[in-house]
Design a protein that fits this description.
The chain has 233 residues and is an alpha/beta fold. It folds into two domains: 2-103 and 178-231, 3-Layer(bba) Sandwich (FAD/NAD(P)-binding domain), CATH 3.50.50.100; 107-167, no CATH class. The protein has five helices and twelve strands. The chain has helices at residues 14-28, 51-63, 107-112, 149-167, 214-231, and strands spanning 2-4, 37-41, 66-70, 74-78, 83-86, 91-93, 98-100, 120-121, 141-142, 179-187, 190-197, 205-212. The strands form four sheets. A four-stranded parallel beta sheet has the order 3-2-1-7. Strands 4-5-6 form a three-stranded antiparallel beta sheet, with no helix packed on it. The protein has a three-stranded antiparallel beta sheet with strand order 10-11-12, sandwiched between helices. β2, α2 and β3 (66-70) form a beta-alpha-beta unit. The protein is globular. The two termini are 36 Å apart. Bound molecules: flavin-adenine dinucleotide.
Length: 233
């Protein structure tokens, strides 16, 4: 059983990828037929901003006989009985529980007084906090975009541009665009891709690219380019 204990959580597609990869792993071990796989997700669909991606993931779950329970979160785990209790009181027995814990900012941020309702409020386009000259980026900032590295990178780019513009007295820099590309493991080595745009329109939109072996090279180049730029590796 893979269970998410609250939203928002890091990398919304990750639990879906996890069950698909678990299916492959158990198949390789020759025990898939003796196992049941279930995913409990507090979201209404696997990737809400992209209905095409969600449909593809739901089809992949159905093909692999993976049970999907949307709109529910794991509220508690009774280790003595090996039972997960959902927020509607339903009980799900398990032999093996992979849980995504409820997310929160680190204590140092809470103690600073910057957080409100658990996250740091910011102007979503400039990442300015309510304190002058203080910005927040990454998972702790309440931008309305997902808690994913690719969105932290976009927010960092906007803040860097604002700081450079300020120091050079050249206007206000570029705004955070709320755009991100996520690669999704569909199992069998195939990778799908979704490009999500949170700020251009009245509601978030997503472009979905069918999973393929070819997209694996894309994902590897994406990772390698960051390792090289950030760490010189
Ligand atoms: C399974 C999984 C898969 C993911 N896949 C993707 C993906 O494919 N693509 C993607 O874009 N994102 C992905 N993510 C999400 C991505 O990892 C996060 O969104 C990203 O790391 C957020 O960066 P951050 O710097 O805001 O926070 P973090 O990376 O969490 O960094 C915060 C750091 O602060 C440190 N810290 C905490 N308290 C203190 C303190 N008091 N003093 C000093 N340091 C402290 C922590 O140890 C940590 O190192 C995934 C996440 C998970 C869990």
């Amino acid at each position: 059983m893979v269970g998410v204990c609250g939203a928002p959580y890091k990398c919304p597609p990750a639990p879906s990828e996890c069950v698909l990869m678990l299916h492959d792993y158990l198949t390789r071990q020759g025990v898939r037929g003796a196992c049941e796989i279930a995913l409990v997700l507090p979201l209404g669909s696997p990737v809400p901003p992209s209905p095409d991606t969600s449909r593809a993931l739901l089809a992949a779950f159905a093909e692999r006989d993976i049970k999907f329970i949307p709109g529910r979160r794991v509220a508690s785990v009774d280790n003595g009985r090996n039972v997960a209790v959902l927020d509607d009181g339903a009980e799900m027995p398990f032999d093996f529980f992979l849980g995504v814990p409820k997310h929160r900012v680190p204590p140092v941020v809470l103690e600073s007084g910057m957080a409100e309702n658990g996250w740091i409020p910011v102007n979503p386009r400039t990442l300015e906090t309510r304190y002058e000259n203080v910005y927040a980026i990454g998972d702790g900032a309440n931008t309305g975009t997902p808690k994913a590295g690719v969105f932290a990178e976009g927010a960092a780019r906007a803040v860097a541009s604002a700081l450079v513009a300020k120091l050079r007295r050249q206007g206000s820099g570029t705004l955070y665009d709320g755009f991100g590309t996520c690669y999704i493991e569909f199992g069998g080595g195939r990778i799908g891709k979704v490009e999500v745009d949170f700020f251009s329109g009245p509601a978030p939109t997503g472009n979905y690219y069918e999973p393929s072996l070819a997209l694996r090279a894309d994902k590897e180049t994406f990772g390698a380019s960051r390792r090289s730029r950030w760490f010189g590796m």
